[in-house]
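Collaborator request, handled under Task 6.
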Amino acid sequence: MTIYISGFRQYVFVVRASENGKGHRVNTVRIAILGASGYSGEELLRLLLRHPQATIRCITSRQNAGQPVGKVFPRFAEARLTFSAPDAAEIAKQADVAFLALPHGTAAEYALPLLRAGVRIIDISADFRLKDAGIYKKYYRAEHPAPELLKTAVYGLPERYREQIRDAQLVACPGCYPTSILLPTCPLLAARLVQTSGIAVASLSGVSGAGRKVELPYIFPECSESVRAYSVTGHRHLPEIEQELAAAAGLTEVAITFIPHLVPVNRGIHTTVILEPLPGCTAAAVGEALQKAYAGEPFIRLLGQGGLADTKHVTFTNMCEIGYVVDEHAGRILLSSAIDNLTKGAAGQAVQCMNIMCGYAESAGLL
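Structure tokens returned to the collaborator:
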């Protein structure tokens, strides 16, 4: 039994023990997945059903309440789980950790009562990523439903906030685009190798990034054989990216140009970041900064100078590939990254955070 103290409340988090097939004692944690019928929820099921120390006790879906998981996702039929309607009081009785794979605005509705009941929260939505409720209102066009939690939420990017995640009650997992941008860029800003102005980013995302919904722009005839930019100003991930880039640079504000694209693949994000070097920024210095930031990180694959990331090398994994090129002709640094938007960009990163919170091997369930 471990007692955690935080500014929000004091509670007791119990890690239960069970016997495995070899007679050894292994610690297990009870899991609830809210919104388990979406793409991120499906990915959480895929990862947590094979996790050696996690037991899924509750999966929720308003649309599919009462249906066995095998009817919605036939590949999980052997799990013998049944969707239920979300009820915070019932979930609190069954779970030690709850993953919120819910739309923005809805996640906060369940986070507050679950936190009060002592359940640790890992949120995959955008509800707790931003520290400023005013910026949330500007980009999500609504008042924040639980602004008192914004200051206590920990940004769930393990490579930057591992120690804070360890004791957190509420973890706000980064968005998929932000993950692909922050991981390659933050080390260079922190090392003062590049300008904080003039940053330009082009990202390409698979269609699953839009969620499991039927809307005209995302059906097969509209996406197939087509690449298109969208939300080139005011994308909802923009303030989250700028918030964390500013933190890495030690500034209060950073403004970037962010151009997301939709590409006709199911999953994966490829990102190119264009940066202006400061005096003294050499190829060797860039490589050294990345090595210093990520040496020993289990889910960062550094490709070195001249390396260009490829989504086919990271799909269905929690890995982020990072390469870089020094463009001497234009005087720019080009960073290249690739992640799976549903794994490192959502569910996999959430499981990585859970592993840190529970004291498990960080790669548990993810290799």
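The cover message to the collaborator said: "The chain has a mean pLDDT of 92. The chain has two domains: 2-175+346-358, 177-341. Please let us know whether this matches your experimental observations."
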